[in-house]
User: Fold this.
Amino acid sequence: MTMTEFLQPGRFIDSDSPQVIAFARQVSANADSDLDRVLRLFERIRDGIVYDPYVDLTDPQNYRASGIIERGRGFCIGKAALLAASARVIGVPARVGYADVKNHMTSPRLYAHQKSDLFLWHSYADLYLGGRWVKATPVFDLALCDKLGLKPLEFDGSSDSLFHAFDRAGRRHMEYLNDRGTFADVPFEQIQVDFRRAYPDLMRTGGLAGDFHAEAVAATEN
Assistant:
């Protein structure tokens, strides 16, 4: 297996951008191994980049690693792209994977505009560690998980890190319905086609404005 394409910069996994290079090197500085460097990157991206689906879904910058660093927030596709790009900076082969999922816990306003609890093209990073590919999902930040009573996703570098089926209270959280496979870069054009078909209201307006964290928490308290 050749790893060249999983180490080179891409249009969205832009591991050659100065922002991504500086971010990856700063976060992983003084780590003793590739595994330790990746674990530090995972935790920083999971918790240091705010999870926010209230972004313009038509804007390429919300899908690009460097764009996520600039904005300090993003949804799953951008955060996974940032982890993959950061891994490439430190010499760890990385790609991005996707699945369609049913999310049982979201904000009522997002559900009303999306008209579905089906989230197409949910993303994770796929990292080559210890001679095998391992999935890492740096999406829901720890602050949001604490507020919603969710189990934060951990990653140890050897086991796949995917969303839990249930939250801490035993309520349905996430169901994986369709595996779309892995890609060397974000398939932006195909995602746009599918989002326009599935979420016409959101795509027509560019997305929602507001505080997703506050709205999601308020929904669990009612």
Remarks:
- The longest strand covers residues 118-129.
- Residues 83 and 125 are 6 Å apart (CA to CA).
- The two ends are 52 Å apart (CA to CA).
- The mean pLDDT is 89.
